[in-house]
Every structure is written in C-alpha cells, then in structure tokens.
Write a structure and sequence with these properties.
The complex is a heterodimer.
Chain A (H helix, E strand, L loop, with lengths): L2 E3 L4 E5 L4 E3 L2 E3 L5 E8 L6 E7 L7 E2 L2 E6 L4 E6 L8 E9 L7 E2 L3 E6 L1
Parallel strand pairs in A: 2-12
Antiparallel strand pairs in A: 1-4, 3-9, 5-6, 5-10, 7-8, 8-9, 10-11, 10-12
Chain B lengths: L3 E4 L2 E4 L5 E7 L5 E8 L3 E10 L2 E4 L6 E3 L9 E3 L8 E8 L10 E2 L3 E5 L1
Parallel strand pairs in B: 2-11
Antiparallel strand pairs in B: 1-3, 3-8, 4-5, 4-9, 5-6, 7-8, 9-10, 9-11
The chains are: A mainly beta, B mainly beta.
Amino acid sequence: AQTVTQSQPEMSVQEAETVTLSCTYDTSESDYYLFWYKQPPSRQMILVIRQEAYKQQNATENRFSVNFQKAAKSFSLKISDSQLGDAAMYFCAYRGNSGNTPLVFGKGTRLSVIA
Amino acid sequence: NAGVTQTPKFQVLKTGQSMTLQCAQDMNHEYMSWYRQDPGMGLRLIHYSVGAGITDQGEVPNGYNVSRSTTEDFPLRLLSAAPSQTSVYFCASSYSGFRDTDTQYFGPGTRLTVL
C-alpha cells in the first residue's frame, strides 16, 4: 500500500521569506500523481500544486514550486515570498494511475507566518 | 458551478442515533469519495464511488454506508453513531482516474460531534 510521510508537524517562516515543506512517499508504481493541498482555518481543502510523475520538470504555480525527486520518492513544496495568508495546514497527497485509485494523504504540516 | 456542496456544516448527535451527510456536485464528475479528518491523522478515505451504482470501501469504512443512485449525489450514512465517529467529514469529486483530469475538488466539510 502507498504511504505518504510528512516529517514536519509544524513549521514557521518570516513574512517575505522562503520555506520548504517536506514530503516523502512509498510506492511500487511508476506512474502516479502528487499534490499539495492547503487547508486554512475555514477547513476548505484547496489544491496548491500538482505534479505528474512522468514529467521531469518541476511544477510551479506563482510563488509555489516543488522539488520532485522521483528516485528518492521525495516531493517538497517551496513557498517563496511568504505571506500572512499562507498560514495553514498543508497536506501532501499521492494518487496512483492504475484505475480509479483514491488519494492517500500525509498527516499534514502546520505552517505559521510571522509578521 | 457550485462545485462540491455538503450539508449540514455542523451536526451534534447522541450515541446510537443515525443520520445522513449529504454531498452533491454539479461538475458531472464520475468519481466521488468521502474522507474523515481527525487531529494528527490527516485525511482517511471512508468510501468512494467510480460512477452511479458503483461504490467501494476505503481505509476506514466500518460504521458507514454509502449509495450512488445519481452522478450528482453521494450521501454518507451513519447507521448508529459512536463517539469515535466525531470528526470532520469531507466529500470530494473528480472526473475519473484518467491522466488529464485527475484533480479532486473538495467540499467545505461537515463537523460532526457524537456525544
């Protein structure tokens, strides 16, 4: 079974600085998807960024980028120019590509942004 | 589009009561799923459906029933509520497990307390 591990329960960053959230996963599949979701206090789950395993290029969405290391099974999220609105829980998630497979989530990292 | 909607937002039950959490989506998504979120546990899959008339169990299905009579609706039934079912419940949907349309969209969540 696939597992997703987020080893940092809590992180903090100064406003305007850069922070990296870690995620590792375990799978025997060669084709899959990886996601980062943001959950603010409103509890809504918001997709931040996604990465297809077959793509070597790291995904980027504005201030958010990933460092995808397929051989190491690592998928970290970098947030540049951190803003107060980035404070939230961040979940890393995995989804296989064999049929209709569900998302597997990590336990989350709580990010605080210090003004 | 309203996206994924869930009702109610909050619910308090007594042990042994039954109830149904409603989930609906207006994006014509085939794939729908229910997750529960507990502190320090991330999101765990309860049940999912790959289309009308088809459902399957996830990681933590005990105590819950689902049905999928239409593409739009995917209700979650608690048969006899227990305090261990106190949690926040999320419904999610996506087109399918196919490569180009794999992003899951989440509802706003239902906070359930069982006394």
